[in-house]
Amino acid sequence: MRSGTNPTVNDVATAAGVSTATVSRCINSPEVVQPDTLRRVRAAIDTLGYAPNFGARALAAKRTNTVGAIVPTLENAIFARGLEAVQRELAAAGSTMLVSSSSYDPEQEAEQIRTLVARGADALLLIGFERSAEIYDFLDRRKIPHVVAWAFAPDQPRPAVGFDNRAAMRALAEKTLAFGHRRIGLVTAQREGNDRAQNRWLGLLDAMRAAGLGEDDLSLQETVYDIESGRAAAHALLTRDPRPTVIMCGNDVLAAGAMIAARELGLSVPEDVSITGFDDIEIARVLTPQLTTVHVPHREMGRRAARMLIDMRDDATAADSVELGTEVILRGTLGPAPVTP
Amino acid sequence: MRSGTNPTVNDVATAAGVSTATVSRCINSPEVVQPDTLRRVRAAIDTLGYAPNFGARALAAKRTNTVGAIVPTLENAIFARGLEAVQRELAAAGSTMLVSSSSYDPEQEAEQIRTLVARGADALLLIGFERSAEIYDFLDRRKIPHVVAWAFAPDQPRPAVGFDNRAAMRALAEKTLAFGHRRIGLVTAQREGNDRAQNRWLGLLDAMRAAGLGEDDLSLQETVYDIESGRAAAHALLTRDPRPTVIMCGNDVLAAGAMIAARELGLSVPEDVSITGFDDIEIARVLTPQLTTVHVPHREMGRRAARMLIDMRDDATAADSVELGTEVILRGTLGPAPVTP
């Protein structure tokens, strides 16, 4: 922390005419303090430029009222809506959420977990289960409550709030196959290190196998989660011969890119090619035609994850995992497979 | 911070067979440490479950290599792309970015500034100039380097990386007026406490006055920044009599909502009504027709802000503000004003 004048908690207590215990409560559990007292103490804190340091915090309270969240990216809306819900729920409980983005890099995620713990995070929200045993050991050794979101697997010991990515993608793929599609294109995020992407791919294969198809009937492109990459990956699939009759995308952002690729190639959706997404974020409804996708309850997931983190932190008890349902949303981009020339 | 075993920096140094100074370097300036040494020390840190606490950090280094960023919302892509650029630039410099969202609430922003300083942020990225004198005094007293982004004003003493929101909106409005539009609708964020929204509104009025129009020729709706709110606000404007011939929106997200409202009302864009946005985020290119908007160099703004924060932190010198240019992007949603029946 940078140097500067360093008023103490005693200075604040004196200035506000309260006890140091009250100052600590204002800092650590503002929700339990009388509004006028809180105002007076905050005014004193501002006037004196007091910032409680870790030492003082350690004495003042076991809790820092700071919860960390590490997401793979901030760049698109996939995690943003859920995070906003986490943040509102935590704010209502008097806690602040600090977010960092790992850019889908396990090394960076490990670094950020260490940093958030060093910065005193009470608890951590993590995306997906897949990370090194070292990091999980680190969290267990430090007794840092953590919840995994965006993924759910009954066999996983870690508390999670999520949904069955594999079953959700299988359900969407079954609808797609019911429309007669047999040549399937998949635009997915890199599956290595991303259990959500892996399970969506496996769910698609489940449905294809059940319909008597095999991996040969699937053309696949791995890319990163942004519209431009989705456009390029879909373009590569749509210029193959024979052309897939449907491009299924790992999320709505990639699907928006696939829509651009189809338009650029003069293909109309869904007459010439069908396109599907995953997540049902707002972009799905602004596309023309609107996007067939899987609705993921992002806000509910965020709220539940926040509640779980607060309970684990306050009661130091392990929470039960929560599996949320998803729903296939049929809109205009999925239609019957065109008859092969 | 939660209790748990508390190994010391000496334990780590012993386990890694290095000096405590080297351990500190690995924590505070990993970029200057030999990779194999860094690996060895990190392994020891993980094995022992060591997390440097603030006291130790204060002794080990003036810097925590943590930079805080507080944005009004995480929910849409307006800030996400710029933040991702900040994060990559900081990561390259061995620093971690911690983000929090104020939900456009000045009280929450003040709380989060206090929290990030308490968590040891070396420097802060803030959005826009408008916040209480108390908070600025707090930052000055604590000597916390901070940069304002997304806004630029020559008369502002605070270091900023941004663009002239007023001039940018004026330039877009001049193009709109050149297409013959005289009945203007504006869907904007709440202007109070949001200098970006205020200046975009003022820029529109500048252009209207220069064209001999007045505030009476402007119908205005204030709302929050999401597609659904944009849809509702645009619907209210488009059902007025006489109907505005153009709906100018405070950003691309609101414009995407306005496109939905026009479609729902059976109005074709731009034949019946023109629509414009602001930001040129990816959603602008997935709309049909594509969106006329103002291109804001979000990535460049993020990179420059990050560099400025790093320099201010490391050299403790005040940085010069940077004004970036914006560009009007004419696409399909802006056309000639329909002839009034």
From TrEMBL, chains A, B:
Give yes or no: UniProt keyword Cell cycle: no
Which GO terms label this protein's molecular function in UniProt? Answer: DNA binding
InterPro entries cross-referenced by the UniProt entry: HTH_LacI (IPR000843), LacI/GalR-like_sensor (IPR046335), Lambda_DNA-bd_dom_sf (IPR010982), Peripla_BP_I (IPR028082)
Q: Which residues form the HTH lacI-type domain?
A: 7-61
The reply to whether Ion transport figures as a keyword in the UniProt entry is no
Please give the name of this protein: LacI family DNA-binding transcriptional regulator
Identify the keywords attached in UniProt to this record, alphabetized.
Answer: DNA-binding, Transcription, Transcription regulation
| UniProt-listed PANTHER family | LACI-RELATED TRANSCRIPTIONAL REPRESSOR, TRANSCRIPTIONAL REGULATORY PROTEIN
Recorded source organism is Litorisediminicola beolgyonensis
